[in-house]
Amino acid sequence: MRLRKSLATAVAAVALSGTALTTGLTSAGAAGNMATVTVIHGIPKVPVTVYANNNVLIANFIFGKSVGPVELAAGTYKLDIRPRGASVSTKPILTKTVTLTPGYNATVSANLTSLGKPVINAVGNPLTDPAAGNARVIVRHMAEAPGVDVYAGATTGAPLISNLKNGTGAGTEVPAGTYSISVYVHGTKTGRVLGPLSLKLDAGKTYIVYAIGSAVAKPSTLTVVSQSYQNVLPTT
């Protein structure tokens, strides 16, 4: 269920992303002068303080957490991400001027590239429901890791998603049910990097699974964050 908040509280929830929400997003969904946003923190070992227009909005946001979805009033904000507890005079880790356009639905994240560089991503989310009896599953690769294959159940057949690379996502519809999801290094059946994860998928819903963290780190910080929703787009 969407959280309806005041502008200040809603901006605080999204501020970690620090990215322009107008890049490659899907329009419609949020009503009136609002945009709908989910935020993910995908940078390991970097708790942060988030500023918007030089005011503290989030004092302690940590890796592996998500916020949302929240409805945000359209507008432009200068967002700065600094180490946790840092003052407004401290150089930001990431910074971005954000323009929120009415009627968008997106997930924004601070995460790692395949080379381990912190970056910002903004991705539009589907606003229509899957076909009757089906669930939609989307996997987004936002981790310091090689290309991967995603399997639902046994690895004897073709992967559900093949050779998914950092900064990209792919999805499909499947019959509602419970699935065991595993992620392997592309082209292997032994290099499992995540899973098995048991996911119960309800008919009519969209599920988005994000791989975040680092497979290179010792020990690995690779993990997943997920979101789900239904009926984002009005049917009338």
Key terms:
four-stranded antiparallel beta sheet; mainly beta; Immunoglobulin-like; 236 residues; 1 helix; disordered N terminus; 2 domains; globular; five-stranded mixed beta sheet; 17 strands
Summed up:
The chain has 1 helix and 17 strands.
Strand content: over 45%
Any guess at the CATH architecture of the largest domain? Sandwich
Termini, distance in Å?
19 Å
Instruction: Give the overall form.
Output: globular
Would you count the extended β strands for me?
17
Sketch the major β-sheet.
5 strands, mixed
Determine the CATH topology of the largest domain: Immunoglobulin-like
Radius of gyration: 18 Å
Given the helix and strand composition, which structural class is it?
mainly beta
Question: Stretches where pLDDT falls below 50 for ≥5 residues?
Answer: 1-29
Order of helices and strands: HEEEEEEEEEEEEEEEEE
- CATH top level label of the largest domain: Mainly Beta
How many helices in DSSP terms? Answer: 1
The helix content, as a percent range, equals under 10%
Indicate the mean pLDDT: 78
Number of domain modules? 2
Description:
The protein has one helix and 17 strands. With 236 residues, the chain is mainly beta. The protein folds into two domains: 1-125, Immunoglobulin-like (Sandwich), CATH 2.60.40; 128-231, Immunoglobulin-like (Sandwich). The strands form four sheets. Strands 1, 2, 5, 8 and 9 form a five-stranded mixed β-sheet that branches. A four-stranded antiparallel β-sheet has the order 4-3-6-7, covered by helices on one side. A four-stranded mixed β-sheet has the order 13-10-16-17, with no helix packed on it. Strand 14 (177-185) and strand 15 (192-201) form a beta hairpin. The chain starts with 6 loop residues before the first helix and ends in a 7-residue tail after the last strand.
